[in-house]
Amino acid sequence: MKEKIEEALATIRPFLQRDGGDIEFVDYTDEKVVKVRLQGHCAGCPGARMTLKGVVEKILKEQYPDDVAYVEPVD
């Protein structure tokens, strides 16, 4: 599953990099939680939570509905 998440994040990465940010995959838990770290401009952006829920989580849940409960940011 970790490999699949990495592949999905690779499709999201250009969107974030266009705004000076990036995303790093940190972990996938037994509870189906995807942990990521936002980097660059995304790390301190006021819209980061919206990006995680509205873009990253949405895409991962669409691609892997039975395998992703939610996306959680880590520092």
Q: List the domain count as a whole number.
A: 1
Mean pLDDT: 94
Number of helices: 2
CATH homologous superfamily title: Fe-S cluster assembly (FSCA)
The CATH architecture: 2-Layer Sandwich
Say what the CATH topology is.
Answer: GMP Synthetase, Chain A, domain 3
Helix proportion range: 40-55%
* DSSP E strands, number: 3
> H/E order of the elements?
HEEHE
End-to-end gap: 22 Å
Please describe the biggest sheet, giving its number of strands, its sense, and whether it closes into a barrel: 3 strands, mixed
Uncertain runs are none
**β-strand amount:** 25-35%
Shape: globular
CATH structural class:
Alpha Beta
Strand order of the largest sheet: 1-2-3
How large, in whole angstroms, is the Cα Rg? 11 Å
- Structural class computed from helices and strand pairing: alpha+beta
Give an account of the 3D structure.
With 75 residues, the protein is of the alpha+beta class. The chain has helices spanning 2-17, 48-63, and strands at 21-28, 33-40, 70-73. A 3-stranded mixed beta sheet has the order 1-2-3. β1 and β2 (33-40) form a beta hairpin. The two termini are 22 Å apart. 17% of the residues are buried. The mean pLDDT is 94.
